[in-house]
Structure formats: structure tokens, C-alpha cells
Amino acid sequence: MMAGLVGFRPPGYDRLPISIPLRPDGRETAVNSQVRESDPTVRALLIDINGTIFDHGIAIEGAREAVNLLRDRGYALRFLTNTESKTVEATLESLSACGLEVDREELFTPVVAARTLLEGFPSACVLSLMSDELRQSLAAAQPEQESGPTHVVVGDCQDVLDYPLLNRAFRAVRAGAELIALQRGALYRTPQGEEFIDTGAIVAALEYGTGRTARLLGKPSSEYFGLAATSTGFAPGQTAVVGDDATTDSAGGNSIGATTIQVRTGKYAAQAAAGLAKGAAHTVDSIADVPGLLAGAA
Question: Which of 62, 165, 167, 225 is 20 to 30 Å apart from 149, CA to CA?
């Protein structure tokens, strides 16, 4: 599975360099104030969490050691999740409880993506459809105001959504506010098997009622992956995306011209059986094999 490390060029992604040396040059710090595009060497990794680092809350064998080795080699790391129902602090606590210590700036969620995007709009007035905790997290960058929204952000709102709030969002979008979706899941199931309507269904209702299409800031949108890559200080072509889901991780990575690595853990088996596990530049057994792949090991 190690063949083809150099010269990989996914169809349709002309931004990816013709030759991709995959060993980092020294231990240079990845974070920089500007995105550096001159060197095509992979310098940063966007690593999926669920199914790649953990499987049902249990660390995949060799995952923590692989992460530590990648850090030691000087790669900039971002840990990606599509979960928008938890604050950054709560997610960091959950990861720590599972044995993975992640710095705050290394975690990239849809809420972080939205906050990053909105920082580019200093005069933005944001109407948030999300829990009070998440609203406060978003407000750290863009305080919500009471009138004239320029953006409507829809996340986990099961505890706060009512018809007046939904209709206010509808009217704001009809009046010109941009509709932003943190994810498009239609439903979710609890470990006990109970099903609940999810964020994507609320977004779909607003899209149908307003005739507008939401801007997606979760997987597999290219904007989500592009913002995550940019946060490392490196260009997408200097980034590798590691994940178990071909339809979100590999697809999102390919959409920004990053090197894509699929692991045979998590969703891989089910997707392979359905013929969906394709599109990644490289496939390895687990994240434990990624340091060797990047170092050019046989």
C-alpha cells in the first residue's frame, strides 16, 4: 500500500503538486501568521477523531503513540470532528478522559469553523440557533445582537428551538441574512437506540421555506477543510487529511487538494462492503501506520 507516495495527483485537483515529498524538513514550527505555499512537503495533518483515533470511545491501538510521534516530528496537527453539540472545552475534556491530550488550538469543530469565518465580518450581527453554551462560544468572536441579523447560524438547538425562534430565523434569511449550517445530519441515535431530529433537518426546513441554500461549515464541505488547513499556517497542498470515512474525510480533503489517507478502522469496513471506500490517495490499516507512510517506510 506504500506505492505511489510520490507523484500522486488526484483527478481534477490541479493545485496539488506533481511531486509530493512526504517527509517534513526538520522540526520547524508549523504555525505561522501567513499561509506558506512555496514548499509542497506535507507539513500539517487534519486527523479525524471518531473512527480514526477512537472507536466508540476506546483508543485505537497505537493511536496515541502515532500522534506523539507526529508531534515529535514537527507536524502541525488539527483534530477534526463534525460534532456541533459540544463546546470546545467539553470536547477537550472528553478526549482527555479517553487518554488523548489535545491543545485548544488543535481542535477544529464546526463551531470553531463558524467563529473563524465570522471573524472576517467585523460588523456581523449573528442570530444563533444553538444551545446557550454553544451560543456563548460563538459569541466570543461575534456577539449576537437583537435586530438586523447578517448571518443565521444553525447548530444543535434541541433545547432552545421553538416556533418564534425558527420564524425569526426564517424572516432574517428572507431579508438577506446568510444561512450557515454547522452540519447536515437528518437524525441521530442515542446509544439506547432512541432517534431524534438533527440539525440538518432544521436547516432543510429553513432552506425550503426561504428558497436559499445554506453555507455548510462541517464535513465534507471544502470550506470547513480549507479553514482547518489554513489554521495550521500551511497551504492545503502541504496538508494531509487522515480519516476513516471516504464520503466525508477523503472527499473533503480531495476538494481542497490535500493528500488523503484512509484508515481501515471505524466506518471503513461498512463503506468497503458498499463500494464507497475509495477516492483516497493512500490506504493504511490504522493511524498507527501513518508516521511510517509519511516517512516513506516500505
Answer: 225
Rounded CA-CA distance 204/1 in Å is: 40
Whole-number pLDDT of residue 15: 30
CATH number of the domain that residue 176 is part of: 3.40.50.1000
Claim to verify: residue 134 and residue 192 sit in the same structural domain: yes
Contacts of 46 (CB under 8 A, 6+ apart): 78, 80, 108, 225, 228, 229, 239, 240, 241, 242, 253, 258
Report the predicted TM-score, pTM, of the whole model to 2 decimal places: 0.82
Mean pLDDT of 264-271: 95
Q: How far is residue 263's CA from residue 51's CA, in Å, rounded to a whole number?
A: 9
> What's the structural domain count of the chain?
2
Give me the phi and psi of 291, to 5 degrees please.
-55, -40
Structural domain range at position 52: 44-82+220-294
pLDDT at position 1 is: 38
Alpha carbon distance 292, 25 (integer Å): 15
- Same structural domain, 141 and 198: yes
Label residue 6 by pLDDT band (50, 70, 90). very low
